Structures are given as C-alpha cells and as structure tokens.
Amino acid sequence: MNKCGSKTFQLRLRRGTATSWITLGRFPEMSLRDARMQATWMHVCEYGTAEPGIRSSVCTVPQ
C-alpha cells in the first residue's frame, strides 16, 4: 500500500547487484491470484524456474 492508500502488486527482480521493480497491476483491477500467476511467469522468464535462487534456461511464453 502506498502513501495514498492504493494497493499495487510489484515483482522484485535481481540481476547481479542491481534490483529492479516491475509493477504487475493494481488492486482491485488485478486479483491477488492473477498477480501471483503473472509474477511466477515473469520469474520463470527471467530465471528459467519458478524456484527463487535457482537459474536455468530462458523460457518461452506459450502463444
């Protein structure tokens, strides 16, 4: 929740020592379930796995 009271879903990604934040969406337009699913997909695409701390091949998003 930010200072104005709105709730935003964000994903933190680390690349080496750099950290970036990606905004997934705002509540209630995006549900918690949808935010978690999107975060999982983005994590898989970035690191190749849904498991934090483990890296493997880059994913391809199904069409």
Q: How is the quaternary structure best described?
A: single chain
- Could you say which structural class the secondary elements and strand pairing correspond to? alpha+beta
Number of helices: 1
Give the spatial strand order of the biggest sheet: 1-2
Distance between the termini: 33 Å
- Write down the Rg: 13 Å
Shape: flat
Helix content: 25-40%
Q: Estimate what percentage of residues fall within beta strands.
A: 25-35%
Mean pLDDT: 75
Low-pLDDT sequence parts = 54-63
How many strands, which pairing sense, and closed or not: the largest β-sheet? 2 strands, antiparallel
SSE topology string: EEH
Strands, count: 2
Description:
This protein has 63 residues and is of the alpha+beta class. The protein has a domain at 7-47. Helices cover 25% and strands 30% of the residues. It has 1 helix and 2 strands, in the order E-E-H. It has a two-stranded antiparallel ribbon with strand order 1-2. A hairpin with a 2-residue loop joins strand 1 (7-15) and strand 2. The termini are far apart. Mean pLDDT is 75; it is low at 54-63.
Summarize the structure.
This protein is α+β, with helices and mostly antiparallel strands. The chain has one helix and two strands, in the order ββα. Helices cover 25% and strands 30% of the residues.
